[in-house]
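Notes to self after the Tuesday call (sharing in case useful).
The group wants a holo model before anyone commits to mutagenesis around the pocket. I volunteered. Ligand is cobalt (II) ion. Logging inputs and output together so the record is complete.
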Amino acid sequence: MASSDDRVAGSDTGEDCPCRDGMFDTLEANRRRFIFGAGSALGAASALALATLPARAAEKAPPGAVWYDVPEDPTKVPGRPVAGDGGYGTRSQFETAVRIRFPTPNANTSWSLTPLASLYGNITPSGLHFERHHNGIPTIDPSRHSLVVHGMVGTPKRFSMDDIKRLPSVTRRHFIECSGNGLTEWKSPKGKTVQQTHGLLSTSEWTGVLFSTLAREVGLKDGAKWVLGEGSDAAVMTRSIPLEKMLNDAMIVYGQNGEAVRPEQGYPLRLLLPGYEGNTNIKWLRRLQVSDKPFMTREETSKYTDLMADGKARIFTLDMDAKSVITFPSGDMKLPGPGIYTISGLAWSGRGRILSVDVSTDGGHLWYPARIESTPEPMCTVRFTFPWIWDGKPAILQSRCTDETGYIQPTLAQLLAIRGDHGPYASVYHLNSIQSWAVASDGGVSNVHA
Ligand code: CO
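Result:
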C-alpha cells in the first residue's frame, strides 16, 4: 500500500508511467489500479447497484461511479430505468479523477489532495474537496450533536442542529486552502502534478448561520476579543480566532454545494472562516468559547507558525495571501504538438477579490493579462484563461495574480528573502509564490523553479 501511495502522491519517485502519451495527466490510471487492488469503500447506493453486476464489471467502476455495459449504439437500445440508481446519482463511469492521499505513515493523520487539473470552473465537487485530518473522520449522528457557545457571553447556550437551522442563514462561495499547501516546494520542485503542488485548495458554496447571529442570541461581554473553536473529532482540534473576524464574516455551516456538509468536511457542522488558513475552519464543531485572550493551543504554537529569516517565528498568520496557478497545461501532461492552446488556471486571495491575473510564457520576462472567466467574489477562487500559440520551442509558463488590496503574488525568491531558509522544513506554511511549469520541445510539462 505504501509503495502504491508513493508512486501516486510521493514527491521524489522517478517512476515513469507507461501510459504517458496523451495530453492529460495519466496518474489517475495508476490510482485506479491501486484502489481496486486494495479494495475500495463504495457508497450504499453504489453497493446496491453493484450487487446485481458481475464482479468483473463492478471492479471496472471508478470511485463514485457504477459500471454499466456500453451499447454499440445508444439509440438502438432502451437506456437504464429512471431512479434505478436508488435515488442518489453517481458520476459517469468514464470519469476517474480522485483525491490522492499524501503518504504520511499514519493514514488517520494525513491529507488528501484535490485533482485541480481535472476540474472545470472554480467550484470543487464535494467528493473531491481536499482533506486534512488529525485523527481520522468521526461518524456523528446529527440528532445527538450540538454546539455550545459559552465563556464571556451574557447567556451561555447549547444549540441543537434543529436550533441552528431555524436561524436565518446565508449562502456564500469561498475557497479553503490548507496553509501547508505546497510545503514540499520551498527548496526544489518536488510535486510532479498540480494536484501534488497545489491540491490543498478547494472551493464550495457554503450555507449556514453567521456567527454574528449566534452572538446576538447569547450576548457578548465587554472585553471579549477571541473565540476558541473546538471540533468533536478524536484530535479535538482547537484554534483561537479573533472576535473581530468572527463577527465580520464567520459562518457556522451545515450546507456544502446544496447538500449537507460531507463527513470529511465536518458533518454536521463546520466553522467557516473565509480566507483564513484551512485548519482554523474547525470541522465537526461542538464548542465556541469567548475569551479576552487567545488560548495558545498546540495547533497555533507548536504547529501552524512561520519561522522567519531572522530566526523569530510569526504566530497567528491567519489570512491566506493571494495566489494563482496554471492547471492546464501543468506538470506530468504532454502537449501533442505545436499549435493553439488555452492556458487555464485558478487564482484566489484570502484578503478579498481577485483583481487581475497575468500570464507569462517566457519565465516571467513578459506578462500579459489573462481573461477572468468567473465573477470575482471575496475570498473565492476565479478561473482564468489565456490563449497561447505554442511554437514548439521550450517555454516556461507562469501566472501571477493581484488582489483588490493591490497585493501582487510574489516570486519564490522574493518570498524566501523574507521567510529565510532554515532547513528542509523551516518554512512549511503560507507558500504563495508564482508556480513555473516548463514545456519541453517534446511537449512534456514539468515542475521547475524558474
Ligand atoms: Co499561518
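Two things stood out.
Residues 179, 277, 304, 317, 429-430 surround cobalt (II) ion (CB under 6 Å).
Residues 188 and 449 are 7 Å apart (CA to CA).
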